[in-house]
């Protein structure tokens, strides 16, 4: 697995470098591809236990700031994906993805609360963009974070909303997203 992760990192880094150097008529360079590559590098470095994720997320955010249409759907979507990834990285760092709890760690609780606030914006934006799959994935992550800091009532409200979306969409029927209780 480690070799595959290293290969992925090398390939993504090459893609980021190419995106930085490539220009097209509309954007000047491949801004969205570069930001996506940086987001993926942040995630992979977190899997490796390297502490560089925040820098990559910040760099990706800065890259998106250079887009000639900063309010476009694509840029809004990519910004929300950055916030989702940053929240997921925080969960990984604190063991929340494996149903962990935050206990007696005010700094961690503050970071998780910040990510919960971010995910509220992420969910609202994805829903406004009609991207129910990403909204549902963000809701699922938010439920885990709420449970990790013992906000079970809030978690149940988000979970009910998630399950409602899954019932109304085809996401659950095709196995693309499972209910929170299943893992």
Question: How is this structure best described in words?
Answer:
With 183 residues, the chain is mostly helical. It has 2 domains: 70 residues; 111 residues, no CATH class. It is built from 7 helices and no strands. The protein starts with a helix and ends in a 15-residue tail after the last helix.
Per the principal axes of the C-alpha atoms, what is the gross shape?
Answer: globular
- Which class best fits the helix and strand makeup? mainly alpha
Helix content: 55-70%
Biggest sheet layout: none
Number of helical elements? 7
Provide the domain count.
Answer: 2
Amino- and carboxy-terminal Cα gap = 22 Å
Primary descriptors:
2 domains; mainly alpha; 183 residues; globular
Would you summarize the structure shown here?
The chain is built from 7 helices and no strands. With 183 residues, it is mainly alpha-helical.
Topology:
Elements: H1 2-21, H2 31-47, H3 53-65, H4 73-93, H5 106-128, H6 132-148, H7 152-168
Helix pairs in contact: 1-2, 2-3, 2-4, 3-4, 4-5, 4-6, 5-6, 6-7
């Amino acid at each position: 697995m480690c070799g595959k992760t290293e290969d992925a990192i090398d390939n993504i880094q090459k893609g980021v470098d190419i995106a930085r150097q490539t220009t097209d008529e509309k954007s000047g360079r491949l801004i969205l591809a570069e930001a996506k590559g940086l987001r993926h590098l942040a995630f992979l470095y977190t899997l490796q236990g390297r502490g560089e994720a925040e820098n990559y997320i910040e760099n990706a955010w800065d890259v998106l700031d250079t887009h000639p249409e900063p309010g476009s759907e694509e840029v809004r979507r990519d910004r929300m994906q950055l916030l989702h990834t940053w929240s997921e990285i925080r969960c990984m760092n604190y063991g929340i993805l494996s149903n962990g709890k935050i206990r007696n760690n005010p700094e961690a609780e503050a970071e998780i609360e910040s990510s919960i606030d971010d995910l509220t914006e992420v969910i609202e934006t994805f829903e406004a963009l009609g991207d129910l799959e990403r909204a549902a994935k963000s809701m699922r992550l938010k439920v885990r974070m709420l449970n990790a800091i013992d906000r079970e009532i809030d978690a149940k409200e988000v979970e009910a909303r998630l399950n409602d979306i899954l019932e109304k969409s085809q996401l659950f029927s095709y196995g693309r997203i499972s209910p929170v209780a299943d893992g």
